[in-house]
Design a protein that fits this description.
Layout: H1 13-21, H2 27-48, E1 61-66, E2 71-76, H3 83-89, H4 97-104, E3 126-134, E4 143-147, E5 153-157, E6 165-172, H5 182-192, E7 200-208, E8 229-235, H6 252-262, E9 271-277, E10 283-289, E11 303-307, E12 310-313, E13 328-332, H7 349-372, H8 374-379, H9 381-394, H10 396-402, E14 408-409, E15 415-416, H11 418-425, E16 436-441, H12 448-456, E17 461-463, H13 469-479, E18 483-487, H14 493-496, H15 509-520, E19 528-533, E20 542-545, H16 548-560, E21 572-577, H17 581-588, H18 593-610, H19 616-637
Parallel strand pairs: 1-7, 11-13, 16-17, 16-18, 19-21
Antiparallel strand pairs: 1-2, 2-6, 3-4, 3-6, 4-5, 7-8, 9-10, 10-13, 11-12, 14-15, 20-21
Helix pairs in contact: 9-10, 9-13, 18-19
Length: about 650
């Protein structure tokens, strides 16, 4: 068997870089500025060790546009390169000078480069690229390198560069004139370079000098001095963003100000978590809890990922658990494995470890808030409850921890942990199967009469009105086997708790049959079933109830956007109270057939109206019939 070496045709490398290496064309600016920052950080490292001597001077990176020349230039005053180093680091594609530097200086901070490909992103937009560079080394000679997007290049010494550092000059192609616009470059710098650890200058801005206090001896008629202004460097980034500082040194107002700098139109956050991990991986950042309420929409671009303060992506699905996509903020880690274009994450055990750590930190924060200030935690429940429920449905580990601070809210605005609530209602709300029945409503007033009846009977009613609640209720039932949930309008109270009826029917079997036949004429048998129940005389004469499993099925189907609810349509039960005076009168005092039919339909429609099931033409007919019946009563009274 023969051995060989895979060959690469280098003349094909530039078309590949232009088309396939980077997901977004504008990333070229991030890569070139990041390289300039790396060169600056390397110089700082060497200076700290005494290996680079002399005055460092300004270490600002500058981005300049020359619209007339059609060039975009990125300049730094960093480490620079010798002719040999240009040959080594520039002409050898995928040879990373950053990686080589880190192998020699393991204590270097915030070195961004990794793959040795960033420089070549310039050819995505440039027909020609020039490098003017001069090394920090004593007696170094400046070097000029030029390439027009092929494997051919020219290199030599030059006297056009006199100071230390590197200038990368991009001669933009005719199709890339947008990158000669100040606004376009400013937007890109704000997006990708906003928090780089070295000042980035882009143009200048006018700044007003502080006005002097008026001289007490100055005559009253003296001329007022005009405000004086000066031109200063326009530094577009914050080299020391909040997440790089110690939490103990940051005030709540500073946390809020940083949040509003990231999300200018947002309300104040509820609270935040400052991440600061050194082992087994490096991770810093700030995660904010925004106001969510129940009408939330999961935005998957609210958390920004940085690597050594370089923006990478706002799609962090792998590193942040799905339910935490509801949060806002920033995460920064040099240990997150990225693809070669630094555009997205690679699947890696390190990513999973960071994911679990973030989830644990969020659970720790919530538990701490619950224990230290429960009243304040309860005030925030309408916002954080959405995240907690979503997390419990998504993450088994989080669910186990959240059981300590997950809350049920009743319709009176009281809060209970699941254990507390079980203890509260078990005496009255335990059924004949020894299951504790948790009654609930949506809290919007639609089940008000049912809520009132339940409270009058001494029962407690919970409020579940969030989109996730049908799934959440099922989750709790799966965890707490002795607990079951039923909406207050799913049946009559005695049957909700599954105890024997306390009342006996005053109707005979023959009277009940007569009553049922009357209602069978107006109730569609395909969608409803008529049943008799001996309820209290002051209960409603006719009730509409919907079996719990059907209502819950429909709710969950609506959340998922499916059509499974068509399986059951609008199925419900029509419960006739055989002890109600109105129904007794209906069969004991026969009326004219037409009037009797109107009364039956009226009672049935009232029950439908109570459940918001009476709509369209049926509602119009109900209103007309109500007016007609009132007129008849008025005429009879006269």
């Amino acid at each position: 068997m023969q051995k060989g070496t895979i060959s690469v045709q280098t003349e094909n490398i530039f078309p590949i870089i232009k088309k396939f290496l980077y997901s977004e064309q504008e990333i070229f600016l991030r890569e070139l500025v990041s390289n300039a920052v790396d060169a600056t950080q390397k110089l700082k490292t060497l200076a700290a060790k005494g290996e680079a001597t002399g005055e460092l001077g300004s270490l600002t990176v500058e981005v300049k546009i020359d619209e007339d020349a059609g060039t975009l230039t990125i300049s730094d005053r960093g480490i620079g390169m010798t002719l040999d180093e240009v040959e080594r680091y520039i002409t050898q594609i995928a040879f990373s000078s950053a990686k080589e530097f880190l192998s020699k200086h393991t204590d270097a901070n915030a070195i961004i480069g990794n793959f040795g490909l960033g420089f070549y992103s310039a050819f995505m937009v440039a027909d020609k690229v020039e490098i003017f560079t001069k090394s920090y080394k004593p007696n170094a000679t400046a070097v000029h390198w030029v390439c027009e997007g092929s494997t051919d290049y020219e290199i030599g010494e030059t006297d056009q560069k006199t100071d230390r550092g590197t200038d990368i000059v991009l001669h933009l192609g005719k199709d890339y004139a947008e990158y000669l616009q100040n606004s376009r470059i400013a937007d890109m710098l704000r997006k990708y370079c906003r928090f780089l650890p070295v000042p980035i200058k882009f143009g200048t801005r006018t700044e007003q000098l502080p006005t002097q206090e008026p001289d007490a001896e100055q005559p009253e008629n003296a001329e007022t001095q005009e405000p004086q202004t000066i031109e200063v460097d326009n530094i577009i980034n914050d080299p020391n963003p909040l997440w790089t500082r110690k939490p103990a040194d940051i005030t709540p107002e500073q946390y809020k100000d940083f949040y509003h700098a990231l999300y200018p139109t947002a309300e104040d956050p509820l609270f935040w978590i400052h991440l600061n991990v050194d082992y087994p991986f490096k991770l810093t950042g700030i995660l904010y809890f925004p106001r969510l309420l129940n009408n939330y929409e999961i935005r998957k671009d609210r958390i920004h990922l940085y690597c050594n303060q370089v923006f990478v992506t706002d799609h962090v699905e792998n590193i942040v658990p799905d339910y935490l996509m509801l949060l806002h903020g920033v995460i920064d880690s040099p240990d997150i494995p990225l693809n070669v274009s630094r555009s997205y994450l690679q699947t890696d055990p390190e990513v999973r470890a960071i994911n679990k750590h973030i989830s644990k930190k969020v659970a720790d924060k919530l538990e701490e808030m619950f224990k230290n200030n429960r009243p304040e935690f309860e005030q925030k429940w309408n916002d954080v409850g959405v995240l907690i429920k979503y997390g419990m449905l998504s993450d088994e580990k989080f669910s186990e921890r959240a059981a300590k601070f997950c809350l049920f809210e009743n319709i009176d605005g009281q809060f209970f942990t699941p254990d507390e609530y079980t203890e509260k209602v078990k005496t009255l709300q335990t059924d004949k199967h020894n299951k504790i029945v948790c009654l609930y409503s949506n809290g919007a007033g639609e089940q008000h009469s049912y809520e009132t009846a339940a409270k009058n009977a001494g029962f407690d009613v919970l409020k579940f009105d969030a989109l996730l609640d049908p799934h959440f209720i099922g989750h709790i039932e799966g965890k707490l086997k002795d607990l079951t949930f039923k909406r207050v309008d799913a049946d009559t109270l005695s049957h909700l708790i599954e105890k024997e009826d306390a009342n006996q029917s005053v109707m005979s079997a023959e009277q009940e049959e007569t009553l049922q036949n009357l209602f069978n004429k107006v109730v569609n048998p395909n969608s409803a079933m008529v049943m008799m129940r001996p309820l209290a005389p002051d209960d409603a004469p006719v009730l509409i109830t919907r079996p719990e499993f059907i209502r819950r099925w429909k709710d969950m189907s609506n959340i998922s956007g499916g059509k499974r609810d068509d399986m059951f349509g609008d199925m419900f039960n029509v419960v006739l109270n055989t002890n109600h005076p109105a129904l007794l009168n209906l069969i004991n005092h026969p009326l004219a057939e037409e009037r009797q039919a109107d009364m039956v339909q009226q009672l049935y429609d009232l029950a439908l109206l109570q459940q918001n099931l009476l709509k369209g033409p049926d509602l119009t007919r109900f209103i007309q019939r109500s007016v007609h019946l009132l007129q008849q009563e008025t005429e009879t009274a006269q």
